[in-house]
Amino acid sequence: MSWRGLPGVGGSPGPILKKIIRIEVPVDLYPTFNFVGRLLGPRGNSLKRVESITACRIFIRGRGSVRDMEKEEKLRDKPGYEHLNEPLHVLIEAELPANIIDNHLNEAREIIEDLLKPVDESQDYFKKQQLRELAMLNGTLREDSPSWSGSASPFSNSGMKRAKTRG
């Protein structure tokens, strides 16, 4: 992603650097939690949103990063798929001017680390927002259903909606 046009980038931006951060996914502590689904969101939109906000590229790598386990097994020893022999992890990559790259990487890291904290199903407002978004994408959203319109997500743009009145 190009750094040109990013807010707050004025004057001489300095040299362009490329940095990568690796975050381990705690699959061993929470083996039944769907980390990949939580990170990706409906049709990959949650991850795309984080990438857009932070100007970083985010990659889910390692065992469990491929949806089809048979396909993962076939790919494991092929060139370019060496990461499938490693534990599940997230790579955050940025190629930005030296004066802003660390801020963008840290913002992306905070969001990803927050998403990697398992939450009790009844308190998981982010997942509820993802399910609502999926229903909208599929055309199955019922506006009259009771829903929580806010989000614990750090990159949500939804606000409170006015109650519908009769008449």
UniProtKB/TrEMBL annotation:
Source organism of this protein record: Ceratopteris richardii (Triangle waterfern)
GO CC annotation terms, alphabetical: nucleus
Gene Ontology MF term list: mRNA binding
Domain of life: Eukaryota
Residue span, K Homology domain: 17-117
Record's keyword annotation contains tRNA-binding: no
Entry keywords, A to Z: RNA-binding
Residue stretches of biased makeup (Low complexity): 146-159
One biological process term in Gene Ontology: regulation of mRNA splicing, via spliceosome
Name of the protein in question: K Homology domain-containing protein
Signal sequence interval, chain numbering: none
Region annotation Disordered: where it falls in the sequence: 142-167
UniProt keyword RNA-binding present: yes
SUPFAM superfamilies per UniProt: Eukaryotic type KH-domain (KH-domain type I)
